Amino acid sequence: MDYLYQRWAAHYLSAIVSGTLKVGERMPSLRELMRLHGISLSTALQLCRQLETDGYLEAKPRSGYFVRQRMRIKPVTEPRLEIDQAQYVGIHARVSDFIARGRQQAIQHNFSVARCSPDLYPGEALKNAAIRAIKQNPDLFVSAVPNKGHPAFRAVLAKRAMRMGVLMSPDEVLITHGCIEALNLALRAVAQPGDTIAVESPTFYGLLQVLESLGLRAIEIPTSPQTGISIEALELACQTYNNIKAVVVVPHLQNPLGSIMPEAHKDRLVALCEAQAIPLIEDDTYSELINDDIPLRALKARDQTGNVIYCASLHKILAPGMRLGWMSGGRWQARIEMLKYAQTRDNEAWSQIAAAEYMGSSAYDRHLRKLRSTLKTQRERTAEAIARYFPVGTRLNVPDGGLALWVELPEQLSSRRVFDAALRRGILIAPGLMFSNSNRFEHFIRINCGWPFSPDIDRALQSLGHLIHEISSLNTPHPA
Amino acid sequence: MDYLYQRWAAHYLSAIVSGTLKVGERMPSLRELMRLHGISLSTALQLCRQLETDGYLEAKPRSGYFVRQRMRIKPVTEPRLEIDQAQYVGIHARVSDFIARGRQQAIQHNFSVARCSPDLYPGEALKNAAIRAIKQNPDLFVSAVPNKGHPAFRAVLAKRAMRMGVLMSPDEVLITHGCIEALNLALRAVAQPGDTIAVESPTFYGLLQVLESLGLRAIEIPTSPQTGISIEALELACQTYNNIKAVVVVPHLQNPLGSIMPEAHKDRLVALCEAQAIPLIEDDTYSELINDDIPLRALKARDQTGNVIYCASLHKILAPGMRLGWMSGGRWQARIEMLKYAQTRDNEAWSQIAAAEYMGSSAYDRHLRKLRSTLKTQRERTAEAIARYFPVGTRLNVPDGGLALWVELPEQLSSRRVFDAALRRGILIAPGLMFSNSNRFEHFIRINCGWPFSPDIDRALQSLGHLIHEISSLNTPHPA
């Protein structure tokens, strides 16, 4: 619906974006807006608030609305269409080194995680739901746990899956210990040690570590920060290698890129895997964090033959402390259920009951809307600080959701050196080396935006920018 | 301390055991006992109650104490010292079949599980501990979970391990999703698909299923119902096969045999595995269910070099609904921690905090003593019913603890036929075929004693005995 305030907000947005209204310039006052455009006070206020929410204006008390510094930074480079050989993953040693060194130091600012502050989640409501769960089910801890998951939780998940175009019955939903267990089970169901799995490049090191622990080889497929995994490259890989046993992708808010796969792209991906008879494993951990209230359709929504294994969890969107994930395994469901039973039996019931109650209430969608909005602000503030403090030549995209930024440093810079220098100042970042078997992303870093932006965080990013400048100038040859 | 009533109880016990006092015969009345032996009323009463508790007398209201039918049944046959070839495990199909058929029928009596009635566990206390845990840690569900386990829980487990002669620091305790995850991790740490693992024979099918799911081969080592795994046979196996990558044993209240490994036997086992450089995986799920208040020393207590991987859980002893297990991996600890992290990350904190609080209180040992006593009674009543109702030639041991009986039927009987016939009458038993890759235990069944004995259970066992008689007489050729 096209409200009046939205039309005027769009008008002023153009002015800001085109530079007609400059950064730091004061917006017309509310009274002036009313007079200039013949609108009500309410409309004038709504238009300013919308632009403020979207990050274009900032309100200064008793002064008015001012145009904010917007990030004027180039997007991350598209990847080259080249594919390494498939190789066994050696990520654990590499990552352990970074993690171990991170623990030896006192850390003031941890930008390396992909998490949110606990305050962003409805802790009080979940606590109360959990207490109700025990009181209503007093034998919870001394009774056998429900097989494959608690019925109420499976039902809620099946219902919410409909919003993503996925039609699954509660009986097809298997509850797991987080999405990581779901990925383990999916891979164990379709592949044996020595097999090759196609993954996005870059990808989150948790996935690479799973591959390593299962003795699987990874073939890294170039992935666009805009559109996700390259279908052409994947097709090429399938032709080149005949033992690709699965493809694992994060179509929505890919970690670390933040890309959201366009709908046509998803169609092509599902069709390709179907044609190649290669199982497609979908990690949908982040989709509820996409800005748009309208959920996008999952890969699983296109699955006609059970070739897509859908995995997700509550870890980032609701309850990192509950360790609740789920999956629907398509034609491998029976095997996956057997492996789950053999590996960890069934999940305990109490957290499922509490989560089911909360997720079935209207509070859940309200929480998600608020979380998206909060993360949006935090991402934008972080991006602006990076634009302000990092050297010229730094590139980044601001994703349409999620809790991290993937930052491309000027190419000659080593994120390992940045990691070391930052560590000495009590700042932890996630160096690009952690997101691939290769060194292709050595000049990238991932910065967490999960905590509310603050002067402290601003100073830390300033510090980070400063040390990157130092390293950069050390790299640059001095003029004779 | 030698109380007067105990001396007289021993006196009457001899009379009963020798048959001087016959089954069904009435004990002297309290007044007669006082007069005969010059003892007080209190002493007379205590002596009768002691014999009643030990199962030799039953009190009939307003009649007095009567000598009970005691099981007069031969112990289970010792195994022959023969070793099959190592083979891939095919237990899942076999067991699934039994499980699936069990689900298709309405079941009145389920003797097939190895579980206790929820009433045998302190549900109320655990519930309250859990509520306290949330109230004291309101951010539990929205905060990152503690790495490797909650400190309080790890500390309690390390402390209680001391009672079994095991010295481990809390830092060496890794919390898992039940003992089954611990076994998975232990096997993944020391073996690769295609490797051979030595297991007891018979053993619980859960273990066989883990082996199958990991692509491991099992070599089944004859196991005595009295002394546990045969050291001679294990030695022979080690000499015959050079790719045995681990030995998995349940030294205390082995499932299904109920054997308790003598101390000298444990010494030999640990020494043998050490000498052969074969990791020894100890499943200690049941040791707290041993009758004796004095805990026996674990295999791990003898571990000098980190060759023993200790695994246990709260599943049978305290809280089947909590899914809490733990392990200490000896020299494989780092690899096990890595595999755990890659497989399921860390366990949620809530149940750990509640369990730690309860287990650190005096209520826990009181609970265990009561549980042992209750199970003892239930085992003995079940054993008596079996002795009364099953055909001559039936053999069983009554273990010194635990919640099941391993019953050897006359050799020509097929437990599969017994399973089928029982199922038709709404009774589920666990046929011996589920406890081995071989058919060696086809004429065995396992009977659960986890529920309080009742007239209903007595009738079900009578029904079971009856149908076994029928099958038996069908087998026996009729005289011409």
UniProtKB/TrEMBL annotation, chains A, B:
Organism per entry:
Iodobacter fluviatilis
What keyword terms does UniProt attach to this protein? DNA-binding, Pyridoxal phosphate, Transcription, Transcription regulation
The entry's protein name is Putative 8-amino-7-oxononanoate synthase
Name the PROSITE patterns for this protein.
HTH_GNTR
Tell me its family.
In the C-terminal section; belongs to the class-I pyridoxal-phosphate-dependent aminotransferase family.
SUPFAM superfamilies (alphabetical): PLP-dependent transferases (SSF53383), Winged helix' DNA-binding domain (SSF46785)
| One Gene Ontology MF term | pyridoxal phosphate binding
Q: Which residues form the HTH gntR-type domain?
A: 2-70
